[in-house]
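Moderator note: this is an archived Q&A kept for reference. The question asked for a predicted structure of one protein chain; the sequence and the answer are reproduced below.
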Amino acid sequence: MSVSVEDWAAEVADIAAIDEILEVICQITGLGVVAVAHVTRERWMACNARDRIGFGLASGTELPLAQTFCQGVCATGDAVIFDDAPNDPVYSTHPLPGQYGIVSYISVPITLPDGLVFGTLCGFDARPNRLRDSAVPGLFGLFAQLIARHIEDRRALRASRQELAETRETARLREQFLAVLGHDLRNPLAALRAGTNILGRGDLDDEHRELVDAMRQTTERMTQLVENLLDLARGRLAGGIRIDPASDVPLTRTLGAVLDEIARAHPERRIETDLHIAAEPAVDPLRFAQMFSNLLGNAVTHGCPDTPIRVSAASVAGRFELSVANGGQPIPAEAQERLFQPYFRQDGAVHGGLGLGLYIAAQIARAHGGSLSVQSSEAETRFTFSMPLASG
């Protein structure tokens, strides 16, 4: 991940701890200027600075790299230190101290944990300062390590944000692909469904009729899977599933149709109902039936076959509630937290689906201004839909 010098200067300038470190160094050493510089092969830029002598160094200040000592410090890993440039055997003839009016100077490398040299921690003054034969070099070295740790933490945070952004983009593209795939599969499936219906009306012997029925069931199953993919796309990409509430369709009729369908498909299962709908909620009949069918089918699939499935519905205290309960093994707490996420299957089994049923049911509940919740214990597992009733 490439980060520009300007971006790093802004990042480091925003780290409050480094600002405090520079202030402490100034107070301890008495140096007039202390700075953290980001150094590359081509550029030198101050990321943060303390300037007490009016040198003109601040965050974002850039100096010609060749006119600094930092290039050599970063290349060799060796500090540059002098106490009094005019009287120093090495730096008395060096052009840089005289160019900038620097008399005392120290610069140490800032090396990140992976070995990358970020830049330097440097300090200087226009007057002599006892630096070389004191505790100052060790102090600068320790503070350079601390600054490197803060920079590495910021670099890791930036990488995590980038990874999260890429993950979100991948998820968005995946869901767009599923939406397009689901849409493009509808027409050929419709053709297959029409073809099997035509074949089913013909004069067939038992063997061929059984084959056509199997083809019809498979086509219907594939159609349902495609519709689930499209519902996923609507919920994730299109701002949620849209509903069309109808006031002329009694809810008992909608619930009854789903109950009859499940009972016909699973005659061995006992379903007990307790419906007391004094006030009708405004629901989309088709979507509500889809949600109820998902909940009831889930109870059939995962519930204990020896205990009845209990369906209750009631309008109480300004709210409508519908619940589906079944016996069986309780759902673990950690699984309950993920039940309404897409692609999650509570027991790891496929059961012919994509793990979208409860997610879509929760999205339908949300579209109605309600919510879907689960409670699970040794006694029972109960899914409850709840929504406010319209006032007036």
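Archived answer notes: Residues 54 and 232 are 62 Å apart (CA to CA).
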